[in-house]
Specification:
By secondary structure, this protein is an alpha/beta fold. The chain is built from 16 helices and 15 strands. It folds into 3 domains: 56 residues, Arc Repressor Mutant, subunit A (Orthogonal Bundle); 129 residues, Aspartate Aminotransferase, domain 1; 229 residues, Type I PLP-dependent aspartate aminotransferase-like (Major domain) (Aspartate Aminotransferase, domain 2). It binds pyridoxal-5'-phosphate. Pyridoxal-5'-phosphate (PLP) binds next to α8.
Length: 450
């Protein structure tokens, strides 16, 4: 890119720059690298491409940077509350060994299959037309089968995040309380806070949300919504115990409340089949389930589904319509192709075995380098919730760890209000398995210094 910029700066407006072939020869790079660099400079307005003729230096357009200070006055207080999402993105974008990202790394993704499915999808006759509003029927049917509801109860969403947002905003006016089984997913907290809702913590133990506290929380707050991850909760990987499922449903029914079930990790088990979505046990229309392919397939396959029964379906579907009309049809076509292909089952088995192996490697590294830090073994999912020794400040550890070249997430962004202990969330899906031991050794150094 720098070389191309130099070529452009040494020439005058209208001059051609060397051909792609020449640049490839000069720099020893491939055609994709050259194409991407040219595209970047075309996008910046430095170059223009003319079909069949070549690439030329554009007329320089220099505009003074506008004075935008007035915006500070007009914008006023921000309603947007990233609530930790900004921290996760900052940690994801460093060069440090990645124990902070929430998405599996390329080595355990079916990227080749997705690429092939996308290529087929893009060639279908209807590919670029408007899809049915609720999504392609085949995709709705597939998700319905996975969740255990009817096809009409499902609509397609852009992963879980957009579905969580549409649901919270669609159901509750600003200022309403929302219950969160804690520790919880910062992205859901960010949605609630950005919608002006008031998150209230209902603590979990290793068997999931405590039904006694849930009943009390519904009674004292008047909340009409509970956000819950019954299966492989982010950040600690617990599963809601089977004997608690009925009490949780009964508490919501007694309060006339909805449960927003975030089933984001359905296909991220490490062995035995996980319990079915809570929606299967619900015969009163209390459970709204969201699920997604982004974790089991790839983060940019932004396709998921929401299942709900009764008038609430239309409420949330209307919010999705207002937000962005529908989900890109080629993405939906590719998703159907992928999940109904013969290779999907074997991909899920490989993914599961790989997550199990990574967790074993991580646990061995923790036993070796950080034996003082306790944790519960996650039943599935991609992260481990590590307790830090008393008196150790997690924010200091995160910064020191970054300085030593490892990115981990501070526990406070998964909590609401005060916490008695410091934690870190370690994600074992985003890092090369061969680097886990080094990452934990670096982390141990950071903990030792904090
Ligand atoms: C618990 C949980 N829910 C939802 C999401 C959002 O996932 P997506 O929008 O990619 O489906 C994430 C992503 O990290 C998550 O951890």
């Amino acid at each position: 890119m720098a070389r191309l910029r130099q070529h452009a700066s040494l020439r005058r407006f209208g001059d051609p720059i060397p051909s792609s072939r020449q640049i490839m020869g000069e720099l020893g790079v491939g055609p994709v690298t050259v194409r991407r660099a040219v595209a970047q400079l075309v996008a910046e307005g430095l170059l223009t491409t003319r079909p069949g003729l070549g690439t030329f230096v554009s007329r320089p357009t220099t505009r003074a940077a506008p004075d935008t200070d007035w915006q500070h006055v007009s914008l006023g207080a921000s309603p947007v509350e990233p609530a930790g999402l900004d921290m996760i993105i900052r940690l994801r974008d460093t060069e440090a060994l990645p124990l902070a990202s929430g998405y599996p790394e390329p080595a355990i993704r079916p990227d080749g299959r997705i690429a092939a499915a996308m290529a087929r999808a893009a060639r279908r006759p209807e590919a670029w037309s408007t899809p049915p509003q609720a999504g392609l029927p085949e995709l709705r049917a597939w998700f319905a089968k996975q969740i255990g509801v009817d096809q009409e109860d499902v609509f397609i969403t852009p992963g879980c995040q957009g579905a969580l947002s549409a649901t919270m905003r669609g159901l509750l006016p600003s200022g309403s309380p929302v219950l969160f089984a804690t520790p919880t997913y910062p992205g859901a907290l960010a949605v609630a806070r950005s919608a002006g809702l008031v998150p209230i913590a209902v603590p979990c133990d290793s068997h999931g949300i405590r039904p006694d506290l849930l009943e009390r929380a519904f009674a004292t707050t008047g909340a009409r919504l509970l956000y819950l991850q019954p299966t492989f909760s982010n950040p600690d990987g617990h599963v809601l115990a089977s004997e608690r499922r009925a009490s949780v449903l009964a508490a919501a029914a007694a309060a006339g409340a909805f449960i927003l079930e975030d089933d984001w990790a359905r296909w991220l088990g490490h062995g035995p089949t996980p319990p079915p979505p809570l929606a299967r046990d619900d015969d009163g229309g209390h459970v709204i389930t969201v699920t997604s392919l982004t974790k089991a397939a790839a983060p940019s396959l932004r396709v998921g589904a929401l299942a709900a029964r009764g008038p609430v379906w239309h409420r949330i579907a209307s919010m999705r319509l207002v937000d962005d009309f529908f989900i890109s049809r080629p993405l939906q076509e590719a998703a159907v192709d992928l999940v109904t292909s013969a290779g999907w089952g074997s991909h899920l088995r490989t993914l599961s075995a790989s997550l199990r192996h990574r967790l074993e490697v991580l646990r061995a590294a923790l036993a070796k380098h950080l034996p003082v830090c306790p944790y519960d073994i996650p039943a599935g999912g991609i992260c481990l919730w590590l307790e830090l020794p008393a008196g150790v400040d997690e924010d200091v550890v995160v910064e020191r760890a970054l300085a030593h070249g490892v990115a981990v997430t501070p526990g406070r962004i998964y909590l609401i209000g005060e916490s008695e202990r410091s934690h870190l969330r370690l994600s074992f899906a985003s890092i090369d398995v061969g680097a886990i031991d080094t990452a934990i050794r670096r982390l141990a150094r950071a903990v030792g210094e904090s």
